[in-house]
Amino acid sequence: MASLRKASTRFNHLLWQQSPKCSNLSLVNGVKHMSSLETLGFIGLGNMGNHMARNLVKKGHKLVVFDVSKNAMKTIENMEGCENCVQTVNSPADVAAQCKHIITMLPATQHVQEVYTSRGTGIFSAIQENSLLVDSSTIDPAASQEMAAIASEKDSSYVDAPVSGGVNAARDAALTFMVGGAPKSFEMAQKYLSVMGRNVVHCGPVGTGQAAKICNNMLLGISMIGTSEAMNLGKKLGLEPKLLAKILNTSSGRCWSSEVYNPCPGVLDGVPSSNNYYGGFGTALMTKDLGLANNAATVTKSPIPMGSLAHQIYRIMTSSGYAGKDFSSAYKFLQDQEDKS
Amino acid sequence: MASLRKASTRFNHLLWQQSPKCSNLSLVNGVKHMSSLETLGFIGLGNMGNHMARNLVKKGHKLVVFDVSKNAMKTIENMEGCENCVQTVNSPADVAAQCKHIITMLPATQHVQEVYTSRGTGIFSAIQENSLLVDSSTIDPAASQEMAAIASEKDSSYVDAPVSGGVNAARDAALTFMVGGAPKSFEMAQKYLSVMGRNVVHCGPVGTGQAAKICNNMLLGISMIGTSEAMNLGKKLGLEPKLLAKILNTSSGRCWSSEVYNPCPGVLDGVPSSNNYYGGFGTALMTKDLGLANNAATVTKSPIPMGSLAHQIYRIMTSSGYAGKDFSSAYKFLQDQEDKS
Amino acid sequence: MASLRKASTRFNHLLWQQSPKCSNLSLVNGVKHMSSLETLGFIGLGNMGNHMARNLVKKGHKLVVFDVSKNAMKTIENMEGCENCVQTVNSPADVAAQCKHIITMLPATQHVQEVYTSRGTGIFSAIQENSLLVDSSTIDPAASQEMAAIASEKDSSYVDAPVSGGVNAARDAALTFMVGGAPKSFEMAQKYLSVMGRNVVHCGPVGTGQAAKICNNMLLGISMIGTSEAMNLGKKLGLEPKLLAKILNTSSGRCWSSEVYNPCPGVLDGVPSSNNYYGGFGTALMTKDLGLANNAATVTKSPIPMGSLAHQIYRIMTSSGYAGKDFSSAYKFLQDQEDKS
Amino acid sequence: MASLRKASTRFNHLLWQQSPKCSNLSLVNGVKHMSSLETLGFIGLGNMGNHMARNLVKKGHKLVVFDVSKNAMKTIENMEGCENCVQTVNSPADVAAQCKHIITMLPATQHVQEVYTSRGTGIFSAIQENSLLVDSSTIDPAASQEMAAIASEKDSSYVDAPVSGGVNAARDAALTFMVGGAPKSFEMAQKYLSVMGRNVVHCGPVGTGQAAKICNNMLLGISMIGTSEAMNLGKKLGLEPKLLAKILNTSSGRCWSSEVYNPCPGVLDGVPSSNNYYGGFGTALMTKDLGLANNAATVTKSPIPMGSLAHQIYRIMTSSGYAGKDFSSAYKFLQDQEDKS
């Protein structure tokens, strides 16, 4: 049981409740601004980005922000307890013109390439010397290396710093950052990343952050479907789901998906599976990450039979109405029709 | 790191080192026999069974044993610090004639059917009234239910009690038992099972122990190949294996296979992957368990795409020279040829 | 092109049009009964069985029939141009009491076991000496061997004779029969089977007919999903479906599924894909056959990675609303949502 | 049987024997050169390319050739019955400087990009106005479109024209060409392609030739493994391989792999499986083509579960000693160890 209790605790602060380390959350209505902290550029205020930006503000940073959605910018500009600590501008170039340290959090490779390299409006068109660019998007490692090459031509540095952990980890500053870049750049970036996350790991040169993210999410994507199959099969064989989960979690079948994010409704409280698979990490996003894993595997000639099958299953789910549901809806996808309805 | 340190500790006593709870191991040369303990029948003294039987003896039980291998019987008969505490006989029937409480640990369904039902030599041909039969083999749940039906015709009871944990868990009395049977039978069996294992879980009626075992091992078999793919891909992408393992184990990719039984040589000490995949849980055995999972899934019409693919991969490994290696050799199977040699 | 023209011709008589060999079809309103022909027993008048029985009648056989559905019996009893040539009875035993030569066409293993072995009502409870039992159901080869063993105890013979070809091949007497049994039994059975089909192949001893059927349908199930993937991918890459089919059919991608049963709507006329996947061979039936293939593969320790995945995909389709559609609806299952609706 | 006889005939001229249409082969020792025929550039004289080039020469074309291997160039320069009809040069640029019509046959995307775009030595650095570039390599459709774009900047045209059919089809001028390009360019190219192949199909705009090739080879790769599984399973179930092949080829399991290229040794003469999988189409090449299919599927968000699994199986074979064997060695890969040796 020990490991089960521990699991659900970890689960609690990892995903929903307030973590001890996050007590500053209770200060939302009275953030103190230590004027000593740098003003940072932040581009990309989506489901993840807006939480990450808020945590920087709560910690006392001022931000110059850009997002294609004016609403997204307005929302954070007006966040409670923050006066004049967020300035909105009209392009990535405008951010680069005002800030030497910029964090980007974007959906996919092509968005990163556009935000960084667009003529006139991209970061590189207005970048200052000795800037530090921190890209937390999950993209093709090769694209990260391209951006790093251009940055160094501009006498600046770039690190790839993709995250592990979903929307709630972003909100609770409980993310894990996997960082690829030169040691000095990593040190600089770490100062900001540690404000938004709990673990900041230096993985090696530029691109290895993406590599680590891709490998983690491939294994996660595999384990989640595997857990869904095991829970569904066990239920059909007459096992009570909570009991089966307990057995798996104290045995060799134990994994993050069975322990803290179980896909079977009713086994754990507060996870997407107990909320009709609303919230969490969308199936379309998992499909995208597994697409990156497949490309990387093809380029490096690495066999990934399970990773490829997982990719295809999420792909079919995405084209069958599960795109917007949490990826743990693999459980629902595998269920009998009557169970589904 | 916290969870990593914890992981390797758990790993240590789960797999190799001496566990605090197993300090009686140090008494091998001076086991005390409390004459109060029942004499038990034990059939099947293979890699797992001989360790389980020894733990019963160490705790003070006398045993009447049978195995098709005379050597296996002789070895335990002559175990150090045990005088006249093990009696060998010539058939399962002979065991049943002398003992009312019998534990069986056999390779597969057909062996269980033979040991229990053979005319003249099987358990049922000499069973006494009110006997308790505890089968720890991993077999088809339907076969367990057949045995239970015959047992009750003989005014006796039967429980299926398959185990989780390998040879070392058997040696260290650290097994998990998943038990299917009537509550009263479970209580009786629990007394003996707790001597041989750390967790004894009541899963429901006869057959649910097998169901739990099948579901756990299916998920284990999936996670192990998934972990092998992630470790191999990461290495090819330039990540240092120990670092990648650390990242997975503090992120959502974490699973038993990555944490305590990592398939990549050099990441953990004392696991099969660091011993050329010698010892541990053979690929042929995992293939057999996944065959049971596939049959159960077909009968219950449960989709198990990842479980089926895992079954097929271990099947190919089994017919390609990996049958006797630990199932974590999936990592080696997926590697490039030069890396293999 | 040559092979394409040939393909569609073959397609025509294989599935829909009248084949030269089937000109007796035109006699539906005036069947001549050559009194010389034996009266046969026929059990199982479903989608396939009723067509097979009709062809026997058209050829001049009288039948004693049984089906669990009284309507099914009435329908054939009242078929046009047939007076007093079909007698309905109340059980398989009644059939066996009147006929020495009996053909059975049933859904699955358990139905065959019931029809043959039920006490009092089963075939074996009233079988006459020197009877010939011809089972055209697709079942577990091991079950066929059991039936054969009981038959020989009754001084009778049994052959397994599963079919290839769908409802239309049954209607047009264009089936292929794969027969397992002793040479003498095969010769006797062949006389009747050739009335219902175009190819009657002796595969070897009892059980090999099922083996051949299982292997054929496994490959068919694989090719159909593969063809669906190729057609869907090609369409997304800008290829016109009819052109792509033509290319595949004149190249090494050619298979029965691409040539005569293309799953992409509009490529061929008169196939299920051009009829909203109505008619043809149901996904649930293909799933059942692939379940038999998986069991046989597990028992013989044969790796079937593609066969297992195909099984799982049809399994998921079956539990997602495709159970009653033709198995070529795999194409629809893989399509984008908008394309689906 | 009909279709079987037909199959083996087709097989004969498609793969090994002399086809009636190829009687010009008998003229090897006395090729007539109609001086009217254009001099063509030819780049890439590998297993496929050297046969294609020879057929152009046999038909009366003079060639200006380049290959990275001097031996490859010398061999064709010295081909029997050809005096001064082949000129060798030092770079693709030299070819382009002398010829307006150039055919390229290269291993992979990067080689095509190098041969066409290298500064100073590439085709584009010396291309003449109104040139026609015909690339028969199998590459990423996107790369074909890039080449076409550059060609049109140089007032020239480009078509992608990948082939179906192996080394023997190349030798016997029995290839199928799948061509993507503008109608006018197609017409020009067709004149030369029809000399080297039997079918020349216009698939649509630039890139669709590659798309057709990718779809065909994906289905071929799937069917070959499926056929291997069916043949291996059938053999284990007691079926005689030649009989099983006959049954499949007259039933719905029929495919090119079962009919004309059966992977089971001894079923057909003259195919790689009857020659220890020597010759034919290497597993590494099939793996490469399936990698292209996977990339195209990811880009177009098309699910290809079977295609992905086939990719992974050939990938594992490639890293397990099968890289240089014909891809039908999938049969051997799936066999039991004893059967293998």
UniProtKB/TrEMBL annotation, chains A, B, C, D:
Q: Which GO terms describe its molecular function?
A: 3-hydroxyisobutyrate dehydrogenase activity; NAD binding; NADP binding
Active-site residues? 213
Q: For this chain's UniProt record, which GO biological process terms are given?
A: L-valine catabolic process
According to its UniProt record, this protein's enzyme class is oxidoreductase
| Pathway membership, UniProt | Amino-acid degradation; L-valine degradation
Extract the NCBIfam families matched here.
HIBADH
Tell me the protein's name.
Answer: 3-hydroxyisobutyrate dehydrogenase
